[in-house]
Amino acid sequence: MREIKKIIWATDGSKESEEALNYAVFLTKKFGSEIIGIHVIPMPEKLLYETEFQNWTIKVEENIQSKLTLIASELTSQGLNFQGVVLKGEPNKEIVGFARREKADLIAIGKRGLGIIDRMLIGSTTLRVLRESNIPVLAVKKRDEEGTVDIRNILVPLDIYEKVDSSLNYAIDLAERISANISVVYVFKLGPFFDEIPFSMLEDAIKGSSNKLAKRVEEIKLKRGIKLEINTEVIRGISTSTAIVDYASNKNANLIIINTHGRKGVRRFILGSVTEKVIQESTCAVLALKP
Question: Closest Cα partner for 126 from 276, 289, 21?
Fold first, then answer.
């Protein structure tokens, strides 16, 4: 059974990072974790030792530390273990490096919306953390609804032609701890000329994929010796990432768990780009991990 003992919460003071903290708190209550909140003051390394900038960062650091202390006080009153740390430097490098030194089990970080500027911001920090981190990264968008976080429905996109099971195994461990449902999907990608393929051939191909997906999941369950009910479904779409995001929205998924990449070479980068697009476009939280 996987344990989440230490969570790094990366904050920049945004609403999205506040939401990431809500998810960190949810998991902490389930796993008895420790949360370390870190705020990185963006600063080029060559300016770190300039007196003028040192004086400026002292004031900024005091303000940030004050906010982290308030959060610590609130969470401590709930019986949770929290500490805040302020760092200086390049945010993605500091976050990943700190998580590595602390031997953390998870990084929780906010992600922006769907606009062009938001996507640039996602790429600047969250996706860089995703690319560089060796531990799972939970990317969280601000929810429209109010209320406490609750993860009831977990969606796991799976490639039936890639023998990588880490995302599903992670989902199983999490679902068993928090009593959540799991749905596993494979995206049958429709090419530009799919409408010219005879309907019967297309349906046979999808049926074959469905059987492979169900068999794959059953093999994993048998190997682990679990009786957890897992729904499997083959969905079709021209865009793999869009199909996953739309399915998650239609099925009210609270969390998508996906691998950052699978195959080596060119296929590795294709799958990696799908993961990045899912993170950018999904309205629900996405937990990405390396195989």
Answer: 276
Q: Which residues contact 142 (CB under 8 A, 6 or more apart)?
A: 15, 16, 18, 19, 110
Counted residue by residue, the chain has a size of 291
Q: Give the C-alpha separation, 85 to 68, whole Å.
A: 8
Q: Are 64 and 39 in contact (CB under 8 A)?
A: yes
Smallest CA-to-CA distance from 79 within 5, 22, 25 is with: 25
pTM exceeds 0.90 for this model: no
Q: How far apart are the first and last CA of the chain?
A: 17
Task: Identify which of 133, 123, 61, 53 has the alpha carbon closest to the alpha carbon of residue 95.
Answer: 133
pLDDT of residue 263: 47
Per-residue pLDDT, 120: 42
Mean pLDDT for 38-53 is: 70
Q: Is 246 exposed, middle or buried (0-12, 13-18, 19+ CB in 10 A)?
A: middle
Report the distance separating Cα 243 and Cα 10, nearest Å: 29
DSSP secondary structure letter of residue 204: H
**Please, which residues have CB within 8 angstroms of residue 26's CB and are 6 or more apart in sequence?**
148, 149, 150, 151
The upper half-sphere exposure of residue 225, i.e. CA atoms within 13 Å in the direction of its Cβ, equals 1
Domains of the chain: 6-140 (3.40.50.620), 153-289 (3.40.50.620)
Residue 85 in tokens: 């740390």
SS (H, E, C) 12-51: CCCHHHHHHHHHHHHHHHHHCCEEEEEEEEECCHHHCCCH
Tell me: pLDDT of 167 over 70: yes
- The whole-angstrom separation of Cα 136 and Cα 130 is 8
- What phi and psi values does residue 121 have, to the nearest 5 degrees? -70, -40
